[in-house]
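Researcher: Structure for this, please.
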Amino acid sequence: MVALALAVITAVLDVTRTIADSAVVITPLGKEWYQFSPSGLNNAQALVQRHIHPLLWDPIIINILLLPSWMVFAVFAALLLWCGKVRQKRWQSRFGSE
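Model: Predicted structure, token format:
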């Protein structure tokens, strides 16, 4: 729900900026993150490049950071909601739950 709320908030911010500027404004995730916490973005880059793999940062995470922030949060929220979906057991779906 937090990711979904962030998606809505960042979409509303982009719409508000679009109306204020009279031009389409789409803010990338990297810019939002840098405005919120520049040291956090730098620490994340150092952590990924040093402890995981340098190639993960440059082609993959950089492209994610260039996407609109509302889109990244919406996809993340959809993935979390799909993973957390309550599934019925096969037996319950055939014979009903008791």
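Researcher: Any notable elements?
Model: The chain is about 80% helix and 0% strand. Helices lie at 2-21, 29-36, 38-52, 54-65, 69-83, 90-95.
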